[in-house]
Amino acid sequence: MASFTVTVPDIHQGTGMLWYNVAVPASGARLLVDANGNPLGGAPLAMGSSDGAATFHMEAKIEEIAIDQQTAPVDAVMTAESAYLEVTLKESALAKIAAGLGQASYSTGTDTGLPAGAQNYEEITVGGLVKIPQAAVALISPRRGFSSPGKFMVACLYNAYAKDPFQIGFTRSKEATYKVRFDGLAVLGRAPGDQVAQFYRQI
Questions:
Q1: Is residue 38 part of a domain?
Q2: How many domains are there within the chain?
């Protein structure tokens, strides 16, 4: 007979680290991480410090099938699904902001018209019809009680784009923050059931 048990190590509490442009795992494989939770392969960009919870969301739209002969639905079918990662970030390096902004063009350079000692710059520009960047994005969170090596919970969108508008405020009394959201797109070459995202933990 089954009995109720509590497994305390399975209660997760840990920071979420957002990575942009990670390697896309092969079908049937996982996004690999090293002993410190850094993603392996690709050209990953760490999106830096965050504020509050970093969220991984998966949802299926379910439609019920009803017939006139029954009062309750007789079946249910999935008609749509979505997956996204969402977090509030604190670091204002424009390379990171550009990754979270769907239509941004990022550049760096030197402008001699600026004051001496402050002539190097990074810049984001927007405006006009541009191709929306798409990349694999991951959220990695360390499990409590594991080190050398660490163990992690890993969420990965295989092909994602930045969806939220960019907004940042400046005030003397509080650090500037901005929200980013990456929505997953289906990768048609992958098997059904594994076309948008994966979520795993090391045990």
A1: yes
A2: 1
Q: Would residue 8 count as lying in a domain?
A: no
Least Cα distance to 16 among 85, 92, 100, 97 occurs for: 85
d(CA 121, CA 167): 20
Q: Flag whether 17 is in a domain.
A: yes
95 domain residue, yes or no: yes
Task: State the residue range of the domain holding 119.
Answer: 13-61+81-201
Q: What is the pLDDT along the chain (203 residues), one digit of tens a residue?
A: 889 999 998 999 999 999 999 999 999 999 999 999 999 999 999 999 999 999 999 999 999 999 999 999 999 999 999 999 999 999 999 999 999 998 889 999 999 999 999 999 999 999 999 899 999 999 999 999 898 899 999 999 999 999 989 999 999 999 999 999 999 999 999 999 999 999 999 99
